[in-house]
Amino acid sequence: MKLAAYNDEFYSDVYREKSKNYYQMHRKKIETVLSFIENKKAERILDIGCGDGLIAELFAKKLSAKPYGLEISKDAVNEAKGRGVDATVFDISEKTLPYDDNSFDVVFCGDIIEHIYDTESLLSNIKNVLKPKGLLIATVPNIASWYNRGFLLIGWLPTWVESASKVYTGNPFMKEGVGHIRAYTKKSLHELLIHFGFADIRIKGSPLLGNGEYSKNQERLWNVLDGFLSRKASIASELVVCATKPNK
């Protein structure tokens, strides 16, 4: 099976089965993402990997901007269009972005960069379509989270780092793969964006919230603990970064 066909099948399955839990788990992260655009003026925003379009819709309302989206899942694109997002079925792993240079005030990549083989091309393309002083906002899992450090000490695989695409082994808390290819820490993410010429790089930590998989008491304890420790970005569950394309 070709990569594009595999990606379409895999991520369509993800959206059909997982989207109802995603926003519950990542509610705090979405709040952090939106905090980076306070008082920002924008005409056009692009959500790469827009899913069902909810976050692009939130961006558009907060900024009074026109929302665009790219997404490999046909099902998700149809949902995004229903939210008013100018969404397109597109495989970002194989092509340059279908927009002119200097087209967008904000580009958002929510849990996308860790899925891409050619990270260099993606970041270069994002920088090209951003206007000068435009913002790249991205989120990624943190391989150096407080619990992953503990897992490594006892010989378990860190969460979200996978031995296979659809099967997860080496950590009993993880039941299945989600297609991650790359891994990031706060330091590696910062250095990567510096390498591609981004400036004013700000990175915040964000927790993952319980989604009903465990008991209420277990999830309440988890939410308190991870919420407290994720205030420190270097050991947080998730990393949220905002970087600026310089004028020159």
Could you explain the architecture of this structure?
Strands 3-2-1-4-5-7-6 form a 7-stranded mixed β-sheet, with helices on both faces. With 248 residues, the protein is of the alpha/beta class. It contains 8 helices and 7 strands, in the order ααβαβαββαβααβαβ. 38% of the residues lie in helices and 20% in strands. It has a single domain, classed as Rossmann fold (3-Layer(aba) Sandwich). It has helices at 3-25, 27-35, 54-63, 74-82, 119-129, 146-153, 186-195, 216-229, and strands at 44-48, 66-71, 86-89, 104-110, 130-141, 199-206, 238-244. Mean pLDDT is 87; it is low at 1-7. The protein is globular.
Write the layout of secondary structure elements.
Layout: H1 3-25, H2 27-35, E1 44-48, H3 54-63, E2 66-71, H4 74-82, E3 86-89, E4 104-110, H5 119-129, E5 130-141, H6 146-153, H7 186-195, E6 199-206, H8 216-229, E7 238-244
Parallel strand pairs: 1-2, 1-4, 2-3, 4-5
Antiparallel strand pairs: 5-7, 6-7
CATH topology grouping? Rossmann fold
Which structural category fits the helices and strands? alpha/beta
Q: Roughly what is the average pLDDT, rounded to an integer? A: 87
How is the largest sheet built, in terms of strand order?
Answer: 3-2-1-4-5-7-6
Indicate the low-confidence ranges by residue numbers. 1-7
Report the CATH superfamily. Vaccinia Virus protein VP39
| Beta strand % | 15-25%
Q: In percent, how helical is the residue content? A: 25-40%
So how many helices? 8
| Count of the separate structural domains | 1
Order of helices and strands: HHEHEHEEHEHHEHE
Shape: globular
